[in-house]
User: Fold these one by one.
Assistant:
Number 1:
Amino acid sequence: MRWTQTFIPTLKEDPADAQVPSHRLMVRAGLIRQLVAGAYTYLPLGFRALQKATQIVREEMDRAGALEILMPAIHPAELWQETGRFADYGDTLMKVRDRKNALLVLGPTHEEVITDLVRHHITSYRQLPVIFYQIQTKFRDEPRPRFGVLRTREFLMKDAYSFDVDLPHLNQSYDKMYHAYCRIFDRCGLKYVVVEAESGPIGGEASHEFMVLADTGEDALVECQQCRYAANLERAEVGDTQAAPPIGSEQPLRKVHTPGRTTIEQVSAFLACQPQQMIKTLIYLADGEPVAVLVRGDHEVNENKLRRALAASRLELADPETIQRVTGAPVGFAGPLGLRVRLLADRAVIHVRNGVTGANEADYHLVGVQPGRDFQPDWIGDLRIASDGDACPRCPGTLHLRRGIEIGHVFKLGTKYSAKLGAHYLDDKGQSHPIIMGCYGIGINRILAALIETSHDEKGIIWSVSLAPYHVLVLPLNVTNPELMQTAERLYRELTELGVEVLLDDRDARAGFKFNDADLIGLPLRIVVGEKALQRGEVELKWRHEATSWTVPVEQAARRAANEIAAALKRLSQPLTRSVSA
């Protein structure tokens, strides 16, 4: 492609609304333009890169034995109401009504639709296993679209769904998809980690996220450098370590007046104690029943862990009236002593000595609290959000807090959807069972953004060879010089014949201007045709990610560039040995 025959509207200045590098550079390099908040037009360079990512995903899904289909983006609301997710998604679900006033949903995901298809066409164990996938535009009414294509209202997604007869077979399908994801992201040139994750509104029994580590990432995760355990904060477990022994001897229990002090910060300042000496008591409603949850004052409750511990379908913080009824005190003065509801404690609480907690009486707290002596929880376990420096749950190592960008997510759904929608199969004895399902999603737009977020410099994008819109940029310094342009045209023609994707910068512009654009759009390999080098019969080659260039004879340049590109693509396609950390 010739630069003058395509459309690459580069910008010198950063867009005012860009908060992260990928957004800034995708706009400046002419990859995307915003239409409305959360919806982008992909321009020629951006669309080529998006197609590259899509093709890699498609090839690896096909290689793993998945069958490609295409489902509608618009769904009848009744399907979502059958599974209960119409209410669960709330305002995030985009809804429209047709001319007959039928309520429809713009799909953010397709579990209901694919399960509906399967329940009508798969009835026997002989038809299983099967994995379907699609590459489809999805929609969500994101309240705060931001970060360019990382958080949008319209996005391109690959979603796959596996259907099996039992859990062992689901594990095999899950393993296929897990390793297919590893191959996809390896081929894209992404540096990622696989973390244990919560299933969120998708639901299910187990899941992993594929995360690209980035300081600007929206998601928080913890990672142990010693054993490589990693999990997002919603899921992360915490190892059991005892707190430092208290200073002085064990104190007696006594009540102190703390007028108007309701928060951890206020009480710890008033009583001159540390937050980790405090025992925070929170009242929750689990499926409508009140329970009390204890965490140390410097910790926060992980509601996903709490929900699992209680085996609860619904979990929410209690309202002030319920707190008053359960504790006998207003919000801010709850404590574990004397409560007549189920008491669950994070295990760090058990190590507190000479603690401070609410007295279940307005304007009073208890000091000298000793867990085990003064109260005994009904259940003790890991209930808190992990934090930097916590003990690893798998080894003697330490957890470190990181930021990341989610690019893929795999779930073991079990029978969550098949049971509700009646997708059953008959076994070899004629008995009916709900089909066991898995779900596997990749945000294809996010692949591009994640790569740029982690692969750029102050000058612009640094593409991987596999995702770059073009492999090589041929840059003649002076297009009015016939000899330079003849050489550039020759290289352009030879590279094209060798199967190399090449962009020829045939603009009549200053060399500095063209170099700045070259660095901004970030194509992997650049061939500069200049007068001085050409007088020696040479041209200059330079990788975008390297500081130095080298020269080669003109007659060898195209072949050399083609070999360099082929070698780089081969390195990205080399399989890595990874295990599913289930």
Note: Residues 470-572 form a domain with the Rossmann fold fold (CATH 3.40.50.800).
Number 2:
Amino acid sequence: MNPSPLNLNIKLFMRVFSSFVLPSLFCFQALGQSQADITIQSVRERLRKLKAQQDENQSGRTTVDAITSAEETGVTQSSAEESEVEKPSPAVSSDRPSDALSDTLPDTPPIISAPRVKPGRSAGTEVSAEPLSGPTIESPNQNLKLETVESRDSEHFFGDWHGRRRKLEARGLDLNVVYKGEGNRNLSGGLRQRTVYLGSLDVKLSLDGEKAWKRKGLSVYVNGMADHGADNDNSPSKNVGDIQGTSNIERTVNSVKLYEASVQQNFKEDRISFLFGLHALGSEFYMTDASTQFLNKSFGVGRELSQTGVNGPSLAPTTALALRAKLALSGRFDFLIAAFGAQSGDPAHPSASVIRGQPSDGLLWIGELMAKDSIEIQGIRAGKISLGVWQYSRTFDHLSDTTIDSTGATVPTRAGNSGFYGLWNQSLNKQRSFFLRAGWASAAVNQTQSTLAFGMVKRGPHKGRPKDSVGFGLTRASLGAPAQDVRARTGLGTSAAEVTTELYYRFEVKPGLAIQPDLQWVDHPSQNPPTDNAMVASIRAEINF
């Protein structure tokens, strides 16, 4: 491989420097120029140190300190002195140095600098011109490679699996195994004070079609999920009696399921994409990044939407077939639209992976318009504002209205089911961010008519722990008028809303391992005043193998 022009120019500079500038400095020293004497000694000392480093490392290590030091100590001479330096011949600019200059080439290797990959980015993407801190760095290719491995190791408990992860990624495969274990206890109030342990294992496999089959824009994603700890007599919801759910990994049954399996194809430089397969609605719709570490379910998809459908919409742990399209309207606006199967799995077999495609199930249509980086705060433009709408193509039983059918029996009337939501996720600075969410659903067929949630998150709350985070949030779920009528008829008490306040601190113990203590205060569980307000304490461990 031919040397780069930068390396040739630096070699040329060192040759001219050693052949002409140093002799001139010796002359000044003979004439009693003390400053030149100091300069020569400084340069000599630098060159000796560089030579020692080269002999010691034997791996092409270089430094930028020698050039900057030489400039700062006054090696550059006046214009009169520079005129005495012989100019190199044009032949020196060729790929190979001339023999005349090669005889005067110093033993010190060329001094170069290499770009540094920004944290969180892989080789080949955006790089920073800022050199690495410290006196020495690796050569450019080695530096990019080491940065990539370091970034990868910082996300996994067992690092690079002795190189196996890199080999898989070179073939287009990205494998992640994540386990979440949580101890949850209702300390006071609610229905009863008990402790329950929950666990969820995710095995996620992504395939890059361009690396695997040279199919640009193609990707495949598969996610298998195994959940345990479910107990019909002992669960967070049974202990607290709330409707929003204090743990987002709570399940009704223990199961091993195929959670997601989808194929995506991008077009027009990734401005247009289509996805088909088992797909989790909350992975793209109704999502705010700042709320992802909260444990309460309503900080994911709002309760007014997650309650809908025969067996719930396409959310954990049971998903439905979906066809999703995404369009980048401009640099800041994206539009997503999807059609999900209106029934996820089979309620009669909750532990099985059932893929339904019956026309009678109907569809759940959902669309979201997203404005990215929409508002600038304190010089930082990192935010997202979204508006979403959804509607089922089928009807559902009305909560309170009834009618007489052809047989003379009293049956509920049928009504449509639709709603909308709005999201705002905004960074205030490099550490702080907040989110604001609101959603509404048809009160005729849904108990929870609306939800409202907001929260604040700070990353790196303590000096020396930049990966820790602390969050405070509040979520409110309100009953609709028909649901309140039904409760009044049955003698149940009712309040305007159930309000849950959550506070967590997430410790990044080491790369790939986090411990998260969490406290939640549930006001009016299930909007039922006779149920005492509850205090729930949790501690969750998350490990990314």
Note: Residues 257 and 352 are 7 Å apart (CA to CA).
Number 3:
Amino acid sequence: MDMTLHDPLIIQSDHTLLLEVEHPGYGECRDFLATFAELVKSPEFIHTYRITPLSLWNAAALEIPLVEIEYELRYFSRYDIPENVLVDIEEWYNSYGKVVLVKDTPGRIRLVVDDPVILERLIHDAKLRSYWLELEGNEFLVDEVERGELKHALVKTGFPVKDLCGYIPGIELDITLRDVDLDSKEFDLYDYQKEAVDAFHQAGRATGGNGIIVLPCGSGKTIIGLGVMSAISNNTLIISTNNVAVHQWRDEIIAKTHMKGEDVGEFTGLEKTIKPITITTYQMLTHRRSTDEPMQNLEIFRENGWGLIIYDEVHTLPAPVFRATAGIQARRRLGLTATLIREDGKEDEVFALIGPKRYDVPWKTLENMGYIAEAICTEYRIKLPADVEMEYAHATKRRKFRIAAENRAKLDLVRQLIINHPDDSILIIGQYISQVEGLSRELMVPIITGKTKNSMREELYSDFNTGKIRILVVSKVANFAVDLPDASMMIQVSGTFGSRQEEAQRLGRILRPKDRISYFYTLVSAGTVEQTFGINRQLYLVEQGYRYQIRYYST
């Protein structure tokens, strides 16, 4: 069939969109869909998108005209668009902006509601009543400190707020990027990184300055963060996942901007220094000596004249930081992540309190452009030893998973994979401490766990990156924000049930651009609950466009 004679998109009544990859119009249609639909899966031939209220709120927040969405859908669609889809698109899109927050007198803001039906609903909604100071015509007067909590409450009612209150000016700080970094390498943002910075900043308008950048690990989200910092040039607070990531952010800031070391502080368990640029961790912000004490470190959000707050790995945002973020809606907020998937389903809260998705590029698109490494994903299924089969049969469901995950037969395969890849830099990662400690002993290679001191972690990561060590065993502490550019192979011996979020993070550890193919091996016990949970993880990679091979291994 001549594919130029038909269109690449099939629109179905369940709000899913099927895009034909081999069609000549694929690229143009893909870029269009990314503006208002969620990519659900992207295997070889057909990519699936879904239209949701949240995806259309994102489009409306980015001021993509509804008429443009409807026109382009008709242009690309192979068949007539189901009527219910067009009705729902219009309804969901138009629900954004039905309630608008604007400034009032100092300390107060106004919620403007032009639709009389929505106005009546909000007046009589018992959950919202505590937010209203006064009702003047079609406008609610609200205490400014309730800005975030009100946005959070309204998104739950299906009426996301268009927030035009703008931002308080942070303390000015001259942050400029180097043309040549401290390693004497030429430095500049890639085109897609510049696009991401522009999409967030919106030239300083009130409609910009908040939101999420979604890009795979290895694509330089930290560099985008530096670009945003330079565009805003205010005091900046950066929150990351662990102390190693804190040090990596600090190193990148000093190496690639003109900021001096004395201007960059670390607020961690080891060092509590507040500087114009301060880097901390989610754990540090939520630390308290006992459950009866308040989380005093959360006050850092309201101090020091921050003009920008960066949430690294924003999909891991813990509940207390969500609540703290509700109180700082007057500060610019940037979220960085490889996936907006939250296992707790709170994507709408991220939208309400951090902002809309501002920029997103499919993993395989960046791979095809050479910005991240090509990866081959393989799952090996291994039988349980005969003596373990009986234990497995009588175990509880939760115990079954651990028995399968710690299958001792995996060790032989790990050894074989290491032999098969003599030139690769290999990470071996697992969920259970006893398992990874055993692998470290048997293979006689170094290990990093939560118990490893930060100085030792950084030394081992450095030795790995410089080639002094070729194989490193790591626990789940390496899931997040670890810069290992020379890692070209990962062996995953166990994981957190069926966590798609974890799968994305682990694959990302080996996607830094390099001249060789990367390999991602997952080891599961055949015919067990581990294999069942693994299907969820496996499908996530397939949906990102990766070919996923299944192999069987017998000892």
Note: The radius of gyration is 25 Å.
